[in-house]
Design brief:
- By secondary structure, the protein is of the alpha+beta class.
- It folds into three domains: 103 residues, no CATH class; 88 residues, Phage tail protein beta-alpha-beta fold (3-Layer(bab) Sandwich); 182 residues, Jelly Rolls.
- The chain contains nine helices and 26 strands.
- It has a 19-stranded mixed beta sheet that branches. A three-stranded mixed beta sheet has the order 23-26-25, covered by helices on one side. Strands 1-2 form a two-stranded antiparallel sheet.
- Helix 1 crosses helix 2.
- It is globular and about 70 Å long.
């Protein structure tokens, strides 16, 4: 079935149209796009609804372009290596367009005409489930647990000779003295949680929702090994000691690199952004990955597939986005359930077709459900922490 995603340059024109108006040549390009397909006009009219864009544009208006341009550019997916004002202006509009795109979860057309979002709005209670945030639990070697949320900048703990400093959304471990005993801590995120961790060697780890990592307070002279469940993104500090991530009965071996490991629902997916890693399975089976490659391992039979990777998709969660590309509705719903910490009940057969698009992870649950309805015809209701989606 035909699927047509909103082009990025058209998103730029639409945003600029509503914010400050277009130059004649820009207006001509937008008019040509509107005239090309009646569905384009329908989509444009949906954006004309002030209530749909009010919060997104208010958010963008609050940005300090000179101070925050790099963060905005990163969200738009652009390289920020050159700090020039003309480039900054381009990034401003590109980022603006990405925010416009993010007001809808998919902004693509399924094989049939869908009703406008207003007709498919989810029924939500006054206190609806909120997007996830910085939430985690730290388990010390003694068994003591510490709830982590919005930590103050001067929060300090001590464990196994290591000083642990905390701030909002992040823990940082200092290297313990060599004579100290090696102790192990576990950082766990709940559904609807995420957290960042700096290990004793300087390696940085981002934990996604429903994930955990067990790690030593200091690394021995032999190697650096951590145990992961769920999903984590790693930026490993280069060292002569190899770094191992153990997950679902396999290991990812590295020296210094950037990669993502996801191990939900019986599938382990390792995506390499930079450097080199080796996938190690029982029986001396191993696969070397190059940057831009992804290894998918089926936990039940250790079947391994290595393919080119979509790095942007793999790392989107770490950069504050849901990013879907040819994903099944069941997989989309599973991600949303983890992040919004809701139970989802599906009524009727889910669409067989695949979906693509993106939305900010801080979008409201109502926005997400509206857009699911927009592209699939589903109707959603929310009662407490239970979401019912009727296809």
């Amino acid at each position: 079935m035909e699927q047509q995603q909103l082009p990025h340059h058209i998103a730029e024109l639409i945003f600029k149209h509503f914010r400050e108006g277009l130059q004649p040549d820009e207006q001509a390009r937008l008019n040509n796009w509107l005239a090309a397909d009646e569905r384009n006009r329908t989509l444009f009219d949906a954006f004309s609804n002030p209530s749909m864009l009010e919060k997104e544009m208010a958010f963008f208006d609050r940005l300090d372009l000179d101070a925050d341009w790099e963060a905005v550019a990163v969200r738009a997916g652009y390289d920020t290596g050159r700090n020039t004002r003309p480039r900054r202006r381009m990034l401003y509009w590109s980022a603006a367009a990405s925010i416009l795109l993010a007001t809808g979860i998919f902004l693509l057309w399924p094989g049939r005409q869908a009703a406008p979002p207003a007709q498919l709005a989810a029924t939500a209670p006054a206190t609806a489930p909120q997007p996830g945030g910085n939430k985690a639990m730290l388990r010390l070697s003694s068994g003591q647990t510490v709830s982590l949320g919005h930590l103050a900048g001067d929060t300090v703990l001590s464990e196994g000779g290591s000083r642990i400093s905390g701030q909002s959304g992040q823990l940082v471990y200092d290297e313990a003295a060599a004579g100290e005993a090696v102790t192990y801590n576990t950082l766990s995120t709940p559904r609807g949680g995420q957290f960042r961790l700096t290990l004793a060697d300087g390696t940085q780890v981002w934990l996604n929702a429903s994930s955990s990592i067990r790690f030593p307070t200091r690394f021995t002279a032999k190697d650096r090994t951590v145990e992961l469940t769920g999903e984590g993104y790693f930026e490993v500090t280069k060292d002569h000691k190899p770094f191992y991530v153990s997950i679902n009965g396999m290991k990812v071996a590295v020296l210094g690199t950037r990669f993502n490991v996801m191990g939900y629902n019986g599938i382990t997916r390792t995506t390499l952004a930079e450097g080199a890693v080796k996938i190690q399975l029982p029986g001396d089976r191993s696969w070397n990955l190059k940057p831009g490659q992804q290894a998918v391992v089926a936990v039940d039979n250790n079947d391994v597939t290595v393919t080119p990777a979509d790095i942007g998709k793999a790392l989107a969660w770490k950069n504050g986005l849901f990013y879907f590309k040819d994903d099944a509705m069941a997989d989309i719903i599973a991600q949303l359930a983890r992040w919004y910490d809701v139970e989802v009940s599906v009524k009727g057969p889910m669409p067989a077709r695949l979906f693509s698009g993106n939305i900010r992870r801080q979008a409201s649950l109502a926005q997400v459900l509206d857009m699911l309805g927009y592209v699939s015809g589903a109707k959603s209701t929310v009662e407490g922490r239970t979401v019912t989606i009727q296809f």
